[in-house]
Amino acid sequence: MSALPTRSPAELEDRPRHQHWLVDTLWGREAVGIIGGEPKCGKSFLALDLAVSVASAVPALRHFPTVHAGPVLMYAAEDAGHIVRTRLEGIARAAGANFATLDIAVIDVPVLRLDLHSDRQRLLDTVERIRPRLLVLDPLVRLHRVDENAVADIAPILSFLRNLQRRFDTAVVLVHHARKSAAARPGQALRGSSELHAWGDSNLYLRRRNNQTVMTVEHRAAPGLNDVEIELADDGKGPALRLRRPVPDKALPEQQTAEQRIVDVLADAEQPLSQAQIRKRAAARNATVSTTLQALIRAGRVERASKACYRLTGTAVHNAATPQAVIGANGQHEAFPKSFPA
Q1: Which residues of the chain are modeled with pLDDT < 50?
Q2: What angle is formed at CA 101 by the lines to CA 95 and CA 105, rounded to 5 degrees?
């Protein structure tokens, strides 16, 4: 047998950052993964929202831009056709998409079992014909007859879906149930084998917190998002998920480096800030802030305004007719005049 082909790192594909996403910061381009959560948390609505956004190039949840739009192939194992239509129509209206021209192909069979070779082949043939940008399968429990807790049973199904992703350059969304759990990470609450959590490149988790639905975003190769509150609402156009409040900028760490966040925090400040204040406003670790501040000082972009406070180089302090007080690194108030020697 011939040896396996190899390439040097410099010969591997190089993609610009914006090409890493199918839906910006929400789902990776050609990523496989799970939308997971307890029953009645809106998992199916979220999967359909992603489908509409990719099929019509509108932002998911009216916030997350679609980067690579294209055809969508989906199978809803638990819902009748008229229910799927009603949900898609409501989401399309809420998103401002044209329902009549949605580029979505809905698989219309009563049963699809991915543990059966014949059904896997039929799905493969359908993916080859449609060439979808996104494949949505909802839910996993209706797509097999094996033991979800046994790696030997569930791994072949996940391997098949990974093969579809690689062969046809399609993203795969698998809707799956989670247990009520006090697990530190929501992925650990997914029902069945831990192989399911490990399999995903992009994962979205929905859970109830204080009567609100919270979405957690997790990626294999990119930072996730801070928890995002969403809700199912009907504004007269049909039921659809929406954000309960705008997503704060700090919930999108992928879009800014720690250095950029710290510079922005100092630029927005009306007076010099202590390291503790910078850490809190930039939502960064103390060690990261300390290292970054030293690098910015060496680069001449940041200067010390006092022993324990920092500002951008050349920045004047506002409203300084009288000395201003800030909280120093030691927690004590420090007074500083209008300007300081360099």
Answers
A1: 250-255, 316-342
A2: 100
